[in-house]
Amino acid sequence: MQRADESQRNKSLDSGIAEMEELPVPQNIKISNITCDSFKICWDMDSRSKERITHYFIDLNKKENKNANKFKHKDVPTKLVAKAVPLPMTVRGHWFLSPRTEYTVAVQTASKQGDGDYAVSEWSEIIEFCTADYSTVHLTQLMEKAEVIAGRMLRFSVFYRNQHKEYFDHAREAQNNKMLLSVKDNSGSHGSPISGKLEGIFFSCNTEFNTGKPPQDSPYGRYRFQLPAEELFSPKTNLYFADFYCMYTAYHYVILVIAPKGSSGDEFCKQRLPALDIANNRFMTCSEDEDGRLVFHHAQDLILEVIYTDPVDLSLGTVAEISGHQLMSLSTVNAKKDPSCKTCNISVGR
């Protein structure tokens, strides 16, 4: 913790705030019950003039904004004015709060005067905290928005992964012929609980509607590993919804996670992601036909990014060069979500 800079406290008369030193300064600030867009705050105060407190001023700043001026009563609404209520007090749904973001907070007590001005205490010490990821409630809201535009289901039979030739050579020579897991990057929604945490391998399953086959173009490399869909997706796996986003284009992406039942990836997802019925959902399904064979379908109007949470042996499929182009502009590596899109954003966070 650090003491708020005296020069930043700005309790000047020109802001309509008068100084009254005897108001108690908040001490030992504690933050609890942190979610992606809310937190509870409480503190200790000595009893002198406590009964005169009518309001609390809470100075909330993103941590990177270290040089912002302290509270000005008529300033932008990152500075909250709250009536004095029993502590702890909940700060919820404020537009300034985003998921997985570091903030600083300081508190001032105030007494509203008869002329509408405020007498205020000194600022408390500054403390830091970080908001949480999206909960399953928020992810379910995202999922419901994605379902609206998913479109009809198209048949598919293979998963595929494009990379450079060197990637597959390294898997053969240094990784015992296996593609190993890597940590999910920061693409997609800022509040996604899998970004920077879940380990897996990205695959695609989208097909071209006129051929029923994977497209020959790719943003990720000219070599494609392809394997039968049942090698990754079956009744032995669980399926989870992880994200819904776009990158300032008309294309919308949904991230799904396939996890072998009982695996470490499965346990991670069970605690954080909405589970999908593998045979009945709007994104990607695995069901049995009349002959007991597995049949697979994907949503036509979404680009699906599928994360598989176990290593995959190259002997399960084939590697070949694609005939199309490498469309780098469509890469989603560390891509930032468009926060203004009404189709794929929910009301909390960004």
TrEMBL record:
Domain Fibronectin type-III: 25-134
InterPro entries registered for this protein in UniProt: FN3_dom, FN3_sf, Ig-like_fold, PHYHIP/PHYHIPL, PHYIP/PHIPL_C
GO cellular component term of the entry, any: cytoplasm
PROSITE patterns in the cross-refs: FN3
Pfam family, one: PHYHIP_C
SUPFAM superfamilies assigned to the protein according to its UniProt record, in alphabetical order: Fibronectin type III (SSF49265)
Family indicated by similarity: Belongs to the PHYHIP family.
Known role: May play a role in the development of the central system.
Stated name of the protein: Phytanoyl-CoA hydroxylase-interacting protein-like
Organism: Cyprinus carpio (Common carp)
Encoding gene per record: LOC109067732
